[in-house]
Specification:
The protein has 161 residues and is an alpha+beta fold. The chain has four helices and seven strands. β2 and β3 form a beta hairpin.
Length: 161
């Protein structure tokens, strides 16, 4: 598996991954009613942000986007988001993408990385981020409507770089 910069020709493989995650409604606060073009515009970062794919043998297994968490006085803190194809989970794709994002942020001189909306019931992601040095600095109660669990919290997770 290699991680490389997203190109527009990747969208035909990235869109089904993103669409599946959004449609499931369990881990990502994107509106499932958004058309593909809106999702594309939200997911594909413009420079100085960065969007990548994890690929193996020409197949895209996952994708990540990263950039400054906020503009101006908050621009020293990075953020990132990750989506992995359902049939490739538990193969280290998410970890590889997260490690890539941390390295990317370090190389660009960010002081920290923050995730703004980690669904608290997404135990796989929460545990991965903890293993990578993130801590939950707060939880917004009932900020996410899970399709089967109802309203659950969104963690804000942070780690210095």
């Amino acid at each position: 598996m290699r991680i490389r910069e997203f190109t527009e020709s990747d969208w035909s493989q990235v869109w089904p991954i993103v669409e599946d995650v959004i449609t499931a409604g369990e881990t990502f606060p994107y509106d499932p009613a958004w058309p593909a073009q809106v999702v594309h515009d939200v997911w594909v970062e413009r420079p100085p942000g960065h969007t990548v794919v994890a690929e193996d043998g020409g197949r895209i297994l996952g994708t990540a986007k990263m950039g400054a968490n906020r503009p101006g006085p908050g621009s020293h803190v990075a953020t990132a988001s990750f989506m992995v194809a359902a049939d490739t989970r538990d193969r280290g794709v998410g970890r590889a993408l997260a490690e890539y994002a941390l390295g990317w942020a370090r190389r660009r001189g960010f002081a920290a990385m923050q995730f703004n909306a980690v669904v608290e019931t997404n135990e796989v992601a929460v545990e991965l981020y903890r293993r990578l040095g993130f801590t939950v600095v707060g939880t917004v109660p009932e900020a996410f409507t899970h399709p089967s669990l109802g309203r659950v919290g969104l963690h804000v997770m942070h780690r210095p770089l």
